[in-house]
Amino acid sequence: MNPVSFPVIFLWAHSRSASTAFVRMMIERGDVTVLHEPLLALTEEGSVALPAPGGGIVQASTEREFLDGLAELGRSRPVFIKEVCDYRYPYLIEHPQEIAWIAHTFLVRDPRLAISSHFAMKPTVTCPEIGYERLHELFLLTWSVTGRKPLVIRAEQLLREPARLVGAYCEALGLPVRPDALAWSPQDRPEWQRHRAWHLDAIRSTGFHDNERTYPVTIDNNAALRSFYDYHYPFYERIVQHAL
Known about the structure:
- There is one protein chain.
- By secondary structure, the protein is α/β, with parallel strands linked by helices.
- 42% of the residues lie in helices and 14% in strands.
- It is built from 10 helices and 7 strands.
- The chain has helices at 19-29, 38-45, 63-73, 90-94, 111-121, 132-146, 155-160, 162-173, 200-204, 223-240, and strands spanning 8-13, 33-36, 48-51, 57-60, 79-84, 103-108, 151-154.
- The longest helix has 18 residues, at 223-240.
């Protein structure tokens, strides 16, 4: 992989972790190329559209083409990619050296709330789709292949202290700190249309805010959700102990 001139940053997250709000903040900056869940699109649709450095769109139909596209984008400006672990991405797991040049970061939320929120959006959700095990696998993989411990953010801290957490994040990754990007106007986005119902909170948002939402089905009254929690909580603990 050819070296890039600007940072190419992955934010790995599980679903319902406030990661789309983080995307919205990155969009608000205006100085970063932002990609929203491109590997999810590649997995579900067989190709993903990437912006071309000189304008226009190029299609990547393999992970190799996708990574080459990221490297090309990173030669002209910083790139930020948010990805969820609803799927396991075998190509990356089996070819870790191909992602060693990327800066990998992680966002995690207490699974008690994340699982209830996920179930509310998708009542057919399965245990692997909850995502913490896959997230932990990527955490260890990226640490090993880069030789650097990935930066980890807790969603709860991000929502309570956005200026501190985002500032530390940007400083660690070589991005200018932009306090003005912590507030924005409500906005729908074309990159959210594939799974728009999942991003309504981000569409209506004006910044990082904890909605303090409650759900009728929780790990306390549903045996399946409790089993998901019991399975994934150890993986959450292993990641969150490294949080800022």
